[in-house]
């Protein structure tokens, strides 16, 4: 794994704009996820330290599909099958990463989905509701973009915490 140019910092303490705060923290956790993988061998990326059995690469794949499901299928309303929206699931009902799927490809897919998610949400007011026709069929079901972004943010925060534990068990690394 290569080092990113410069790790992102948390948004400044003085930031009061709620949308900028959510966007800033979401990018911070996207960056933190990838930084926490640095230094792990391919074997460590593909094996689990946790009783749940999740591997670090499966966590990346899961968060890629969280972004896809909520921003593309959800907010944009892109029609697709639920199978496509939820992604490949393995025998243990976890996000599947094939043994021959290159680590670089999993990370590139995540990076591209994050770029697409940012593009979808750019310059859209937080109060705008998700489009109908994809994940949501009625206006009552359709959450606001602000709700979606906050939901995606909390998914990252939770799973980066899982990765903290996994990483500490793998090689003793703690913190950012």
Which helices and strands occur, and which strands form pairs?
Blueprint: H1 18-37, H2 42-46, H3 56-75, H4 82-86, H5 103-121, H6 145-171
Helix pairs in contact: 1-6, 3-5, 3-6
Distance from N terminus to C terminus (CA atoms, Å) equals 16 Å
- What summary fits the major beta sheet? none
Name the structural class. mainly alpha
Q: What's the architecture of the domain at 51-171, going by CATH?
A: Up-down Bundle
Structure in words:
This protein has a domain at 51-171: dinb family like domain (Four Helix Bundle (Hemerythrin (Met), subunit A)). The protein is 55% helix and 0% strand. It has 6 helices and no strands. Helix 3 (56-75) packs parallel to helix 5. The longest helix has 27 residues, at 145-171. The mean pLDDT is 90. It comes from Streptomyces zagrosensis. Pfam families: MST.
Key traits:
176 residues, 0% strand
What's a concise summary of this model?
The protein is mostly helical and 176 residues long.
């Amino acid at each position: 794994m290569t080092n990113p140019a410069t790790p992102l910092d948390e948004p400044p303490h003085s930031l009061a704009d709620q949308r900028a705060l959510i966007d800033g923290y979401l990018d911070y956790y996207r960056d933190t996820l990838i930084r926490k993988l640095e230094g792990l061998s391919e074997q460590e990326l593909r094996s689990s330290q946790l009783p749940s059995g999740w591997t670090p690469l499966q966590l990346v794949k899961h968060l890629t599909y969280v972004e896809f499901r909520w921003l593309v299928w959800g907010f944009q309303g892109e029609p697709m099958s639920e199978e496509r929206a939820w992604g490949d699931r393995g025998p243990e009902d976890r996000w599947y990463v094939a043994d021959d799927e290159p680590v670089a490809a999993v990370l590139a897919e995540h990076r591209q989905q994050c770029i697409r998610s940012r593009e979808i949400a750019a310059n859209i007011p937080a109060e705008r509701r998700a489009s109908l026709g994809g994940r949501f069929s009625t206006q009552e079901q359709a959450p606001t973009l602000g709700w979606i972004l906050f939901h995606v943010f909390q998914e990252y925060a939770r799973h980066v915490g899982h990765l903290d534990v996994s990483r500490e068990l793998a090689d003793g690394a703690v913190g950012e």
